[in-house]
Design brief:
Rossmann fold, about 10% strand, globular
């Protein structure tokens, strides 16, 4: 991407509790970007999924895939810069394989889902910048507890740990475009202005070539 060209799509990736939504809100205000959030309140599968993962995992992942694809098509048709809370890649490369690994999604469902993702992926553009919020399990747990979402109370540590392993593997192999990694064990952007300023400087450098 040329430095003068306005970015159209910035995406924030990270595990449950890493701070994606908070950073999305902060950056959308700072840069006047249009935020796109994951709609957890109206997701018809989420509560059922946390009650019975094997039964609802495929349905949930298809729901996410559709909503994320819709977002991407809107981004491509629009002229404004969008900042997206979580990406289509995370569903397919992290959450679905992890469910399959843990015996919570059948092999045929996973393969069907993943092939569908590959087809969709070929139709959309990757983000101009991917920001990855990297956080250890203790950091994730303390942030999840702070926000107190009822359905997240049952999330197991081994589940978060496995997701983290998938995230790190995914980011290490990500070659669709620019990546910025923020270490959330050290960078507490939500409560520390200086830390937040560091993120802004890095984004300015990556996207606009400002020093």
């Amino acid at each position: 991407m040329s430095k003068s060209k306005k970015p159209k799509h910035v995406a924030i990736a990270g595990n449950i509790g890493a701070g994606k939504t908070t950073l999305t809100e902060m950056l959308s205000k700072h840069y006047k970007w249009i935020p796109q959030f994951e709609d957890v309140d109206h997701n018809p599968y989420l509560m059922d999924f946390y009650e019975d993962m094997p039964r609802w995992s495929f349905n949930l992942q298809i729901y996410f895939l559709n909503s994320r694809l819709k977002q991407l098509l809107e981004i491509q048709r629009g002229t404004e810069t969008i900042i997206q809370d979580r990406t289509i890649y995370e569903d397919a490369n992290i959450f679905a394989p992890n469910l399959y690994d843990m015996g919570l999604m059948s092999k045929r469902d996973f393969e069907n889902y993943y092939q569908f993702f590959q087809t969709l992926k070929s139709m959309v553009e990757p983000p101009d910048l991917l920001i990855y919020l990297k956080a250890s399990v203790p950091t994730l747990v303390s942030q999840i507890q702070k926000r107190g979402r009822e359905y997240e109370e049952n999330i197991r540590l081994d589940y978060l740990k496995k997701l983290n392993e998938y995230y790190n593997k995914f980011i290490a192999g990500y070659n669709e475009g620019l990546v910025l990694i923020i270490d959330c064990d050290k960078n507490k952007f939500a409560e520390n202005d200086e830390h937040y300023g560091e993120i802004i400087t890095k984004i300015d450098t990556e996207l606009f070539g400002l020093f």
